[in-house]
Specification:
Blueprint lengths: L11 E4 L7 H7 L5 E4 L2 H4 L2 H12 L6 E2 L8 H13 L4 E6 L1 H13 L27 E5 L11 E6 L4 E6 L7 E4 L9 H20 L5 H23 L4 H17 L6 H13 L3 H31 L4 H15 L16 H10 L12 H11 L1
Parallel strand pairs: 1-8, 2-3, 2-4, 4-5, 5-8
Antiparallel strand pairs: 6-7
Length: 381
């Protein structure tokens, strides 16, 4: 085992019900005078967004919004947002919403002042050093879902509209200067989004926990994150206004994204191409392939998941843990397989190639090859 790594941990987080009221104060604290609030189309017209804009407006910060954000945002969305950012003379971005809005807001803040292509900043080696760091706008993140954890991450996912491949764009300054985690903002989520985003957080914790790399801090965070999702996601799903459950899920989401600095694996390397090609919800897709990936990785993770089962109070070791995943999926209305999500067998070769190119596959406990990845897709159908 290589006991050497470079570690970094999250940013200032203002956590608690009602803390959206501090939005203008926090924007001013990081020097933002003309923020652009980036959200998605569904959120743009909702009361929680209007309240956020009222708070900014009352403090003299305006109420500028950009909401042309697709569920799997691409460079076209980004370019449109940059045009609005420049036309409005903005000096910072407030990312408001789920993972799509958070990721796209980060891309706008990153690229509005750059002269290179966003694809030159993919998370490969030291490519991030190509950016002019002084031209990256300050970012505030306000999650309204509990899943991706993008609010505590230094990267964003952007889909290339030409190749339909999802790319991870990285720069240390994409870490939001301040994150406001207000569980009240998640109360109005549709049930299927509560389920899908919650299982995304579970997938982040699970894959980080099972990743073979050395990062004991992430290991501990991932294990507690698994416990929080296991206990509180069903409560948040069945009783949407349960603020304790909503808060614990918001914590678990941030924990998952913190933990996956240790690595992700086959769940994400399968899910990313499916989402890019079919536009399916990312967290829901993660949940669909999760049991099949557990089976695939069993030789390498059986003992490890036995320990996790003990910590979560699940009897039966690996088999008990897997059974709990199946029960959670059923309780949350998750589709049973990729066929039920519209994935076609005729495209499995294409999806396999995309999965092998995905950076997540490098963190899988068992090496992913063309043959075993194709077989894993087949098992997930």
């Amino acid at each position: 085992m290589n006991l050497r790594a470079n570690w970094s941990y999250p940013t200032a987080i203002k956590f608690g019900a009602g803390r959206i009221s501090e939005l203008a104060e926090q924007a001013q604290a990081v020097g933002i005078k003309r923020p652009l609030l980036v959200t998605d189309k569904a959120l743009a017209g909702l009361p929680i967004t209007a309240r956020a804009l009222d708070i900014l407006d009352a403090a003299g910060l305006g109420r500028a919004v950009f909401s042309d954000v697709d569920p799997n945002p691409n460079e076209g969305n980004m370019d449109a947002g940059i045009a609005v950012y420049k036309a409005g003379g903005h000096d910072g971005v407030i990312c408001f919403g789920g993972g799509s809005a958070l990721d796209l807001g980060k891309m706008i803040a990153l690229m509005a002042g750059q002269t290179i292509s966003v694809w030159d900043l993919e998370d490969i080696g030291d490519w991030w050093t190509r950016a002019d760091a002084g031209k990256i706008a300050p970012i505030i993140a306000v999650p309204t879902t509990a899943g991706t954890g993008s609010e505590v991450g230094r990267a964003g996912v952007l889909t290339n509209s030409q190749t339909h491949k999802k790319k991870i764009i990285f720069h240390p300054k994409l870490m939001p200067a301040v994150t406001i985690c207000d569980p009240e903002l998640t109360v109005g989520m549709p049930k299927f989004i509560t389920a899908g985003t919650g299982m995304d957080a579970f997938a982040h914790c699970l894959e980080a926990y099972c990743s073979p790399f050395y990062h004991p801090m992430s290991q501990g965070i991932a294990l507690e994150g698994l416990r929080l999702v296991n206990e509180y996601l069903p409560r948040a799903y069945h009783t949407p206004d349960d603020l304790e459950a909503r808060a614990q899920m918001m914590s678990a989401a941030a924990m998952g994204a913190t933990a996956f600095q240790k690595g992700l694996g086959a769940i994400h390397s399968l899910s990313h191409p499916v989402g890019a090609v079919y536009g399916n919800h990312h967290g829901t897709t993660n949940a669909v392939v999760m049991p099949m990936v557990l089976d695939f990785n069993r030789p390498a993770i059986e003992t490890l998941l036995g320990r996790a089962a003990d910590y979560l109070g699940i009897k039966g070791g690996f088999d008990g843990f897997r059974a709990r995943v199946i029960d959670l999926r059923a309780e949350l209305g998750i589709p049973q397989n990729l066929s039920a999500m519209g994935v076609e067998r005729a495209r499995l070769d294409e999806l396999t190639e995309m999965a092998l190119e995905d950076p997540s596959c490098g963190g899988n406990p068992i090496e992913m090859t063309r043959d075993n990845t194709r077989a894993l897709f087949e098992a997930s159908m």
